[in-house]
UniProtKB/TrEMBL annotation:
<protein>
    <recommendedName>
        <fullName>NADH:ubiquinone oxidoreductase 30kDa subunit domain-containing protein</fullName>
    </recommendedName>
</protein>
<dbReference type="InterPro" id="IPR037232">
    <property type="entry name" value="NADH_quin_OxRdtase_su_C/D-like"/>
</dbReference>
<dbReference type="InterPro" id="IPR001268">
    <property type="entry name" value="NADH_UbQ_OxRdtase_30kDa_su"/>
</dbReference>
<dbReference type="InterPro" id="IPR012179">
    <property type="entry name" value="NiFe-hyd_3_EchD"/>
</dbReference>
<dbReference type="Pfam" id="PF00329">
    <property type="entry name" value="Complex1_30kDa"/>
</dbReference>
<feature type="domain" description="NADH:ubiquinone oxidoreductase 30kDa subunit">
    <location>
        <begin position="8"/>
        <end position="116"/>
    </location>
</feature>
<dbReference type="GO" id="GO:0008137">
    <property type="term" value="F:NADH dehydrogenase (ubiquinone) activity"/>
</dbReference>
Length: 123
């Protein structure tokens, strides 16, 4: 179990992240891992006074996740990376690279999906 973990939902994510920012929390990064049955965990890591607080979001990989890039601008890089590597979409990204942040057009498999899901052609 992760210390200082708060479970959030798609509906509460942006509000909880806004509270973290208002509290003076620094967004460190967030991590993503598939957990099976078409789901993934996204864990948002924050720091204040060298104490980490983590928001845990379990998502269906085929449903879009609200972007937090409107609250923490730098989140756009991590959200674009998750789109590239896990094929999880983010709604409201301040800058969407269209799954081309790290991936070239030659890539035909989603790299971090356990089921080696084939990518849809890029337009």
């Amino acid at each position: 179990m992760i210390e200082n973990q708060i479970d959030v939902t798609l509906e509460s994510l942006v509000g909880e992240v806004s509270k973290m920012k208002s509290d003076g929390q620094r967004m460190v990064t967030f991590s993503c891992t598939t957990i099976g049955d078409g789901q993934a965990d996204i864990i948002y890591h924050f720091d204040k006074n060298e104490v980490l607080t983590n928001l845990r979001l379990t998502v269906d990989m085929d449903k879009p996740v609200p972007s937090i890039s409107g609250v923490y601008f730098a989140a756009l890089l991590i959200e674009n990376e998750i789109q590239d590597q896990f094929d999880i979409k983010f709604d409201g990204l301040v800058l969407d690279f269209g799954r081309k942040l790290y991936l070239d057009d030659e890539v035909t498999i989603i790299p971090m999906c356990n089921n080696t899901k084939a990518m849809k052609p890029k337009k």
